[in-house]
Task: inverse folding
């Protein structure tokens, strides 16, 4: 009512859903930061770090390295559900066969790993979208089930970006996808210098949203915030690297591939600088 042309935010899915319904009625786009793709859609774009992008990138990279048959060990959680929802489609696009998907609840990973032991000689990679909280439990379960990470390539998501993963021997040489952190680190240094504290990790998302809208307004004028303009196929390069909105309101990102090595992770494949 005060004349806003576009709304940046909010963060939580329920808030995005409420905001989106009001903004649509006024034909105003929303750029929000929820990771729940269920709230994306016509006029509501998510500029968050979506697990679906991680899955796409890591499986594409694995396929490029000759991995053809994989299994997945996925937690029963909101994050696990998001990953699982896209796994089979992404695998099919990359010519990868999924031999089995095992889900597990907290504290019950051992039986799921044991079920995978029967096919351990039929897979060349194992996808485990876990975080540092359960790194030790995963390592124990893999060992108990005879799933040797030296023989089966472990694959992960940006949830692996955790010192506890890096220091767990079972994850050594594992590959995972994540946004390039170099832009964030430069931003964080400037932020600390100005404000004397660290920014939250998602601060760059808001920065990139404003950057994108300013650029579109400068280059496209009155059409800057039209659906066709916001979801331009070329995308843009922000602090967290290359990104673009899809027509369905989700986003696609250019991610790096990292490899776990002796207490740290090293980049083994750069993020793309343009979309095919």
Result:
């Amino acid at each position: 009512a005060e004349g806003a042309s576009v709304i940046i935010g909010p963060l939580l899915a329920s808030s995005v859903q409420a905001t989106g319904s009001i903004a649509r009625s006024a034909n105003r786009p929303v750029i929000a930061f929820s990771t729940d793709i269920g709230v994306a859609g016509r006029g509501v774009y998510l500029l968050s770090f979506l697990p679906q992008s991680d899955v796409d990138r890591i499986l594409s990279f694995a396929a490029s390295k000759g991995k053809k048959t994989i299994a997945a060990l996925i937690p029963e959680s909101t994050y696990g559900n998001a990953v699982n929802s896209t796994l089979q489609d992404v695998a099919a696009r990359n010519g990868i066969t999924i031999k089995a998907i095992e889900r597990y609840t907290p504290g019950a990973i051992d039986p799921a790993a044991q079920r995978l032991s029967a096919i351990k000689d039929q897979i060349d990679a194992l996808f485990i979208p876990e975080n540092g909280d359960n790194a030790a439990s995963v390592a124990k379960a893999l060992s108990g089930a005879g799933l040797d990470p030296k023989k089966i390539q472990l694959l992960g998501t940006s949830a692996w970006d955790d010192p506890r993963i890096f220091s767990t021997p079972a994850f050594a040489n594992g590959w995972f996808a994540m946004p390039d952190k170099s832009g964030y680190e430069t931003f964080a240094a400037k932020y600390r210098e100005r404000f004397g504290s660290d920014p939250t990790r998602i601060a760059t998302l808001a920065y990139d949203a404003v950057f994108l809208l300013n650029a579109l307004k400068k280059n496209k004028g009155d059409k800057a915030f039209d659906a066709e303009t916001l979801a331009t196929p070329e995308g843009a390069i922000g602090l967290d690297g290359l990104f673009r909105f899809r027509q369905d309101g989700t986003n696609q990102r250019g991610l790096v591939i990292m490899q776990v090595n002796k207490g740290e992770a090293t980049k083994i494949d750069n993020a793309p600088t343009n979309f095919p």
Summary: The longest strand covers residues 97-104. The mean pLDDT is 94.
